[in-house]
Design brief:
alpha+beta; 4 strands; elongated
Length: about 100
């Protein structure tokens, strides 16, 4: 639905833009993988993985507008964002569809 698709599109755009700007500083070749998985009815995980240099260790305290935006949009979708580094950045956005968010509210 549109109430879920728009925030997801903004999240993907922000993560991809950050990768493009900072993930390939020497102009090398980059790789991005985007996955969407339904965990159970109404609950999903959006995975965004790249082969860039990753974020600093205290990424949760980063004062960047982009990461704040991804965090806020994740919450807007009734979910949360997590980050790990495994030969590149791995973002997982856990979220609920609109119908499931309405039940929880």
């Amino acid at each position: 639905d549109i109430d879920t698709a728009v925030p997801l599109g903004l999240i993907i755009n922000e993560l991809f833009t950050n990768f493009y700007k900072y993930g390939m500083p020497d102009g090398g070749r980059g790789m991005v993988e985007i996955n969407l998985e339904q965990v159970n009815p109404g609950n999903f995980i959006l995975g965004f993985t790249d082969n860039g240099p990753g974020l600093k260790d205290d990424w949760e305290n980063a004062d960047t507008l982009g990461l704040k935006l991804v965090h806020v949009l994740s919450q807007q979708l009734g979910g949360k964002m997590s980050y790990t580094f495994k030969k590149g950045s791995c973002f997982s956005i856990y979220f609920k569809d609109t119908a499931t968010r309405k039940i929880v509210e």
